[in-house]
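User: quick one, fold this
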Amino acid sequence: MISKLTAVAAASLLLLSACADMQLGGGNKSPDSTGVAGAKSQSADDGLKHCAAPLGTVSINEDQTAPWYGILTGQYQLTSTVPVLKLLVQSSGCFIVVDRGRGLDAAMAERQLNATGEIRKKSKLHKGQMVAADYNLSPSITFSQQTGSGSSSLLAYVPVVGGALAGVAGTMNTKEASTVLTLVDTRSSVQLAAATGSARNVDFGMLGSLVTSKNAGTIGGYSNTPQGKVVVAAFSDSLNNLVASVQQYKAQNVKGGLGTGGQLHVN
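Assistant:
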């Protein structure tokens, strides 16, 4: 018969190992902590598909009025998905990211200063220098949260060793996220691809806070909370599926040309 101390130790190890279990479309995911433009990802096993050359420039925009965004920032206490997606896209090397958020606001502020004559003439800040976004990438998330009745059976013997771990077992649940990334051509507004992704993990309540990531300083709560990690994993899966789709992309054609009436005629 095992001692109470041994039971506590065994239960703790079970909790910690399961807390790190992240299931993503094709396997585990631990996103790289850096994404340097023009360079390969620093991690060979970052779980992302990589491209030999960029497919074009992309801006990333999220609909902050959508219901999923309210759940993300309210119930899950996470921030905008844009920094996460910028990191993932940059790390994949499949697109060159152009900033259409605060970075653009800062750039426009510099141009306003230049227009007033306050910027030095040799600053090389002129009109016509900005790069256009060839594509727009927009995310969406679907959340689900289920009580882990099956998982709690792993700790069925915990009550005999006291209430601390039993309380932890009571907080166990499975968090899942499904994501969609949509890629639109900015010149024609034609949707080029849409890819889903999914991930799930086992969250052991307070023990989830013990699991840290090397990229905590880069994407904040997405790297150090169970709900954040599952969202990153799901987006990684979506991006992998999107890249696989666009690498097989062929120009879409409609007889007579796109936007000239179509083939579903009305008599």
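User: anything notable?
Assistant: The beta strands are 22-24, 57-60, 96-97, 135-147, 173-185, 191-203.
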